[in-house]
Write a structure and sequence with these properties.
433 residues; alpha+beta; 6-stranded mixed sheet; 6-stranded antiparallel sheet; 22% strand
Length: 433
């Protein structure tokens, strides 16, 4: 019996110690988040992500990574609800301390923009073994040249990796040392602003728009990245929404693509099946990047949503572009979006409340002899999930040839029917792709 009582006392003491640790750590989280967010300023967001698994690579990832915080340009994180008690407790404590507006919960939305995020891992007193090892694992899942910060109440380590995820540098900074604030801010900005962030902010200022508060990243194409922005309406609330496309001048892409695409979108505007450009394309940051804004903002097309009517609709929208005198150049489902149909033009079905429009026409050009076949082939491959190395069915190739030769709506509908029949006969394998 004495032994049992001793074990019970130890258990109670352990529970009290754990509760005391959790309480202290929660206060630490709230206080440090408030301090660091104030230091970073309004253009940057510090987001709590320790209740959500990210980053992950592969569809079935067994690695449970939950970074404490991450920093990014305002609005880039993907919002998550506060499903767990710890997140709700942090929110409640933040309300009590008057800093609730500084608390956000979420994750980085897509690996394509992980190079615009800095991971922060904090503890009351971090371990140079276990906690540092955890940060190294985070860096292994991020892009090359990634940034991370390990911090506690007295110091931080500013950690950078390079190619092949090798640690490039570690700098220890004491919070009480002179210049620590500047070192922290400069490090975070180096990991989040260059080169994309600087061009995005310059473009937002030029076009008088702002990134939305969450889920601002819309997608990335072969030449650039697209973000959801808005112009402030009455009382500072969001007014009209736009898509901001940003292109960098790198060894793989050129800002020429932005000006080229902008020009062709404007030329093809009368077809009513391409996204509209608002204003002109503009170069920024010493012509290291360029941007322009588009309207409206739509939602992507997913292969699992395809129906017979939907496939007919998609091919008709390609025909409308061709019939208007243009080639897309990269006619895939990924370059189609659904938007509200405000005009009910003859290229879209009258009974639909939405219409389809083409985006990402950087490879577009005026109609040529074989362009109908090239676009129809790209679209067929996308619908049937047949990419490089695979061959389209012979009957589909024949329908594409007839479409390119006849150049009429009857051939367009025959191609659509052939694609749907082929899709239906191999639906499971297509959807798995």
């Amino acid at each position: 019996m004495p032994k049992a009582r001793n074990l019970s006392a130890v258990g109670a003491l352990s529970r009290r110690y754990f509760q005391h640790y959790v309480c202290n750590r929660m206060h630490f989280n709230v206080k440090m988040t408030q301090i660091l967010q104030n230091v970073l300023g309004p253009d940057m967001n510090l987001v709590n992500s320790e209740e959500y698994r990210w980053p992950q690579k592969g569809f079935f990832s067994s690695v449970k990574l939950r970074p404490h915080l991450h920093a990014s340009l305002r609005g880039l994180h993907s919002h998550r609800d506060e499903r767990h008690n710890s997140a709700r407790n942090i929110r409640q404590l933040a309300c009590e301390t008057g800093g609730v507006e500084q608390f956000r919960f979420g994750v980085a939305p897509n690996a394509e923009i992980w190079d615009m995020f800095v991971i922060l891992e904090g503890n009351l007193r971090f371990s140079e073994g276990e906690d540092f090892g955890k940060v190294v694992r985070y860096l292994q899942y991020l892009n090359e040249n990634a940034f991370a910060i390990l911090f506690d109440k007295s110091r931080c380590w500013l950690i950078r990796s390079r190619e092949k995820h090798i640690i490039r540098s570690i700098e220890e900074v004491s919070w009480s040392a002179g210049g620590s604030k500047k070192k922290f801010v400069d490090f975070v900005r180096a990991g989040t602003m260059n080169p994309w962030g600087n061009v995005i902010l310059a473009a937002c200022k030029h076009f008088n728009v702002q990134l939305v508060d969450t889920d601002a990243f819309l997608g990335a194409g072969a030449t650039g990245r697209v973000f959801k922005v808005y112009q402030a309406g009455t009382n500072g609330n969001p007014g009209e929404f736009f898509a901001l496309k940003v292109v960098l001048d790198t060894e793989f892409t050129s800002i020429y693509y932005a000006f080229h695409e902008c020009k062709h979108l404007k030329a093809a505007n009368e077809t009513n099946v391409v996204v509209s450009v608002v204003g002109d394309c503009k170069a920024f940051e010493g012509e290291t990047g360029a941007a322009y804004i588009m309207s409206p903002v739509g939602v992507p097309i997913h292969r699992e949503d395809l129906t017979q009517d939907f496939v007919v609709w998609i091919v008709q929208v390609l025909f409308a572009l061709h019939d208007g005198g243009f080639q897309h150049g990269d006619a895939r489902l990924a370059n189609l979006i659904q938007v509200p149909d405000r005009e009910r033009n003859h290229h879209q079905h009258q009974y639909r409340k939405k219409k389809l429009i083409w985006i990402d026409v950087a490879d577009s050009r005026l109609i040529g002899e074989y362009s109908w076949a090239m676009d129809a082939t790209s679209l067929s491959r996308s619908i049937l999930n047949v990419y490089q190395g695979g061959e389209l069915p012979e009957n589909i190739n024949k329908l594409i040839e007839e479409y390119a030769m006849n150049k009429n709506e009857a051939a367009c509908l025959e191609l659509a029917d052939g694609l749907w029949a082929e899709f239906l006969s191999n639906r499971d394998s297509f959807l798995r792709g």
